[in-house]
Amino acid sequence: MCGIVGYVGNRDCTKILLSGLEKLEYRGYDSAGLALIDKNNNIILKKAVGKLENLKKEFIDFNIYCSTGIGHTRWATHGKPSVINAHPHLDSKERFVLVHNGIIENYSEIKEELIQKGHLFHSDTDTEVIVHLFEDKYNGDILEAVKETINIIDGSYAFAIIDKENPDMLIAARHGAPLIAGENENERFVASDVPAILAHTRKIYFLDEMEIVLLKKDSMEFFNFEGKKIEKVHNNINWDPLMAEKSGYDHFMLKEIYEQPKAIRETLFSKLEKDVFNIKDLNLDNIHPDNLRKINMVACGTSYHSCLVGKFVFEKTLRIPVDVDYASEFRYRDPVIDKNSVVILVSQSGETADTLEAMRIAKKRGAYTIAVVNVFGSTMAREADGVIYTVAGPEIGVASTKAFTSQLMTMYCLSAYLSEKMGIAVNTSSVIKTLKTISPMIETVLDNLDIYKEIASKYYKATDFLYLGRGINYPVALEGALKLKEISYIHAEGYPAGEMKHGPIALIENEVPSVFIINKSSLYKKVLSNLQEIRARDGIIISIATQGDENIAKYSDDVIYIPDVDEFYSPLLTVIPTQLIAYFIAKKRGCDIDKPRNLAKSVTVE
Ligand code: F6R
């Protein structure tokens, strides 16, 4: 939540920072702000409530050369969205200016003390105390002042500070929120995430927990929280900057839906070597097959739904039990985890606070942790015992799509790979063969959008939707409902179709559409009976069915067909129509699809 970006260098940086913020807007869009230092060492501060475009308006006729600056896009935690609460924040003497991502838990005590000392606060934020505290501690040595400040503040943060008296410098620190630094000749950057600076450099340093970076236009130094200098090695990022652009699509979400064939193909191929599964970075030698008596899977939101599919996949392939938890529950429920446990954490961003903390708890108890993440170098990727990357490329749309299908692909690969290691008789070459057919099948589902536009026109005014599925497609029903509610603001519930008669069927009336995932499967007849129960109560039926199932049209108001695929792999296909239904309904309702209200892509606060 919240995105920060900073620049020190030879170039005029206003546009660099604004375009960096554009790439970070997925992290929050309640307000945005920029602080720049001009040639005369004046701080220029501009802020605006709402989306970044409002801030951009403030810069329409702006032509003052500034080569140092910081920017922020906010997801409000303390203090409602307003210009006063927008970052950057100044100290009392208006010398230092700061942006922050995270939460300062002890801010009110610190604020009290500083007020006693004569500091004047303007905002309701927790953030403002950092810059005032920094001012209080500053005694001519910028690193010393940061050290003293972080000794006092509690909570999670990544912050960056610039100083008008030392205009060619920027200092930033990380504790519990992501921070990266990048460099080019004669210019240096910091940001919350790689896409913010990808257009300028691919030479990226990932700050670890409790590290500080001091940037000057021609140097970059790293320190730990004790102020001891540390050496860090950079990573060369191979993401193409174009991947973080809309490339002619109306929304990132639609672009990312269309990128799924490529994302799952690349994810699959990254796990193969000469057509045999080989998952590098997993450090599997550290897991004794005997330890694989049970798997725990932990995640949030869409990634949690992919774990629910993963449960089916691992249990069927490995015949060992799998427990799936919401990270926010797992971390507080004293889970039964020990050194014999294998815990798989799934996260697109690799930064979700609850999942990260769940991982740390599992590690503390001696479990072997495996992170399935999309963002290279993210905190989970670096802290887990083993890591498996989904190769989806940057996912910018707040509603997760290609990350989900890439996570599913990873589960299929991992389960087959583990089966080999455990000596379980699974025909992995046939698994690979089938997995290779999925990508072209998704392309056929994406071929014709008319049906989704028609469904959107018919039902966009509905106030409630149900999504129903069974077996391995029950998690897809949950995911379909989540997608619709988060981007269209229509109330939607996902349910196992067989559970309807135990309560939710009371909701059915003639204006409530039910989306049935009724592809060819061992439970087809059971799902059909559930569908009939809804139909008998005048409910509207939208079926996601298998090509060739002409029969289903008789019982449905609308049918979307997917190619014929083994039910075990079908979630990779059945989820695509649910994404498109949500997308076109949200579009018809005029919703801001890539930036749904109240949300942020990377939930780095608890
Ligand atoms: C929904 C969505 C969220 C995320 C959740 C976890 O479309 O994107 O529910 O799935 O916040 O995020 P990650 O996967 O980054 O841990």
What is the compact description of this entry?
The protein is 33% helix and 25% strand.
What does this structure look like?
33% of the residues lie in helices and 25% in strands. It is α/β, with parallel strands linked by helices and 606 residues long. It has 3 domains: 3-243, Glutamine Phosphoribosylpyrophosphate, subunit 1, domain 1, CATH 3.60.20; 246-445, Rossmann fold (3-Layer(aba) Sandwich); 450-588, 3-Layer(aba) Sandwich (Rossmann fold). The protein has an 8-stranded antiparallel sheet. The longest helix has 20 residues, at 402-421. The chain binds fructose -6-phosphate. Residues 300-303, 347-349, 352, 355, 399-400, 482, 486, 602-603 line the site of fructose -6-phosphate.
Number of individual domains: 3
Q: What's the number of helices? A: 17
Measured between the Cα atoms of the first and last residue, the distance is 10 Å
Mean pLDDT figure: 93
- The CATH topology of the largest domain is what? Glutamine Phosphoribosylpyrophosphate, subunit 1, domain 1
Approximate helicity band: 25-40%
Each distinct ligand: fructose -6-phosphate
CATH architecture of the largest domain, please? 4-Layer Sandwich
